[in-house]
Design goal:
The protein is mainly alpha-helical and 502 residues long. The chain is built from 21 helices and no strands. It has a domain of 220 residues.
Length: 502
């Protein structure tokens, strides 16, 4: 299978996985809330949030793992995959031990002294913490296997495992509703075991299919560890900036507005989370190809893939984004019955921001492929950290509650321009080529789809909310897809699609 077809197939697989993940995830959340009750659900969310913060290190290391493995694969016979894999594996084992020690000491101390819950619930909270830490530690150890599968582009296997995990979780949660004992403790054990299924499957698969790569050999070269840890440190800086921006926004809003605004913002963040999953899925299918081609010395091919994925990501994202915006108020009523005030406004601006982000989809992968990420991560972090002080000053002077999301959109544009500058210095990237191959086609489609969206939103008036949403969505998806086909794609690309359906 050639590289282009592989990218298309991987994108389709990730799309299907995403649809299943969203549908099953939304229903599972509802069942869990009913089974545990608000108090226990909130307790698990708080304790689980502490562990998620620690697990942030593990997820950051994933991108580091598949970056080094993919680059090594691109070197062909000159590469030493076994050496790289074992170096990454040992780093993750040490990291897992460190996280477990921190969790079992500082984590327990925090829960026992600062967690804002009834004292009678402290034993349950500690029980949840212990089981969550077990899952966290073992998941971190399995990160190199997951990174190897991503580098090998085994997306079908990982998608099947992930969907299986979610179905199993839903099944067990439904059974939990009939459990008579302490449901919170049982839920903690269930989630621990279920969350370990995918990492364990990944490790077993690699042991069977990639024996030569995963065979353990201790790497005694400190330079290799230092190189990977240095790279990971800069990646963590950017990730920490993203996390700080996300968590800090709620705090800033809470300083100037009521908890009603926080509820509205929280709903918007949840919707944005699913949209971001779609954005990441679009880019993930091409990341291994970008890195492998760069590792093999074919930097021009990597740059070509970046331009292609930017344009296609925008096309694929604008359809669901515009469809959501057209019927946003009705969809919120169908979903939440009584959505918080201002939720639709927050969602609107976050969707626009997600759409803008697609215009740099693949930039990070190419920059990371070069290995020169220090300046990029410092600049990126400074731009992202600007959100909170700027929003604070605006709110201090009586600005609208939506100001923080508008500032975020402006900063996203700044990030794109900054990444263009970095790529121009490190590769053969040019602003003119980027405009011709990505921005100009995106502008054409944007103008057409904005016109269609205004027409569908304000012309079609149906009293029945469900019928209105369904009809508008069908018309939106079909008309926008045709617009992209005839206006966004060139003759050669339309030919590929026609041949694919024959």
């Amino acid at each position: 299978m050639n590289d282009n077809r592989k990218i298309i197939l991987n994108t389709a697989i990730l799309y299907v996985k995403l649809v299943f993940s969203v549908l099953i995830g939304l229903y599972t959340s509802r069942v869990i809330l009913l089974a545990l009750g608000v108090a226990d659900y909130g307790l698990y969310a708080v304790v689980g949030g502490v562990v998620s913060l620690m697990n942030f290190f593990g997820t950051t290391m994933l991108s580091t793992s598949y970056r080094f493995l993919a680059i090594e694969m691109g070197k062909g016979e000159k590469g030493n995959l076994n050496k790289v894999y074992n170096t990454v594996f040992i780093i993750h084992v040490v990291l897992a031990i460190f996280l477990l020690l921190v969790g079992e000491t500082i984590g327990c101390w925090y829960v026992d002294n600062f967690l804002n819950v009834n004292r009678a619930q402290i034993p349950d909270a500690l029980f949840v913490l212990h089981w969550s830490l077990i899952a966290c530690g073992l998941s971190v150890i399995a990160v190199p296997s997951n990174g190897l599968l991503v580098a090998r582009e085994k997306f079908l296997f990982t998608a099947v495992c992930e969907i299986g995990r979610m179905v199993l979780k839903l099944f067990m949660v439904i059974l939990l509703a009939h459990y008579i004992g302490n449901r919170l403790r049982m839920y903690a054990m269930i989630i621990c075991v279920i969350n370990l299924t995918v990492p364990v499957c990944n490790m077993i698969y690699c042991r069977i299919k990639e024996q030569e790569i995963v065979r353990f050999r201790f790497n005694q070269s400190w330079k290799d560890y230092k190189k990977i840890l240095s790279y990971c440190g800069w990646i963590m800086l950017g990730s920490a900036a993203c996390m700080g921006q996300s968590q800090g926004s709620s705090i800033i809003i809470n300083l100037f507005f009521s908890t009603v605004m926080n509820a509205a913002y929280s709903v918007a963040v949840q919707v944005n989370g699913y949209v971001q999953m779609l954005v990441r899925s679009l880019g993930q299918a091409t990341i291994p190809q970008i890195m492998k081609n760069y590792g093999s010395g074919n930097a021009e091919r990597s740059l070509h893939l970046v331009f292609v994925i930017c344009r296609y990501s925008f096309f694929l994202m604008i359809v669901p984004v515009a469809t959501l915006i057209i019927s946003l108020d009705e969809i919120l009523v169908l979903w939440l019955k009584e959505p918080p005030a201002y939720a639709s406004g927050f969602i609107f601006f976050m969707l626009i921001n997600a759409l803008i982000y697609t215009l740099e989809c693949g930039f990070d992968a190419l920059i990371q492929s070069t290995g020169n990420i220090r300046n990029n991560q410092i600049g990126l972090s400074l731009i992202l950290f600007m959100l909170l002080p700027v929003a604070y000053v605006l709110y201090l002077h009586g600005a609208s509650v939506y100001s923080i999301t508008v500032v975020n959109i402006i900063l996203s544009v700044c990030v794109i321009l900054f990444h263009c500058h970095i790529l121009q210095k490190q590769t053969n990237f040019t602003y003119l080529e980027y405009f011709k191959r990505t921005i100009y086609p995106a502008i054409k489609i944007f103008v057409v789809i904005v016109g269609l969206s205004i027409l569908l939103r304000y012309v079609i008036k149906i009293d029945n909310i469900f019928v209105s949403v369904f009809l508008k969505s069908i018309l939106a998806v079909s008309s926008m897809s045709l617009s992209i086909y005839y206006i966004g794609l060139d003759k050669i690309e339309r030919g590929y699609i026609i041949r694919a359906f024959r």
